[in-house]
Amino acid sequence: MADIIIENPNSLSPVEIKYEKTITPEFFKGLLFWQKISNTQNGAVVYGGEVAQKRSNGLEIIPWNKSGEL
Prior knowledge:
By secondary structure, the protein is an alpha/beta fold. The protein has one helix at residues 29-38; strands spanning 4-7, 12-17, 44-47, 53-54, 60-63. It has one domain (4-69).
């Protein structure tokens, strides 16, 4: 499902960690499942690339060198 679950004061946030530099739909499979079962719109992918993104479905894409911002 997710590699890490971060506990925040009011929610849990799933994080997937991928070493690839190119974002693929497969990155989001576990996070989309999490959204479905938890009825939330959060989550993040940490990946080997260099560009941060915020997706319309509430998911964030975070470059590995910015992962300390989680």
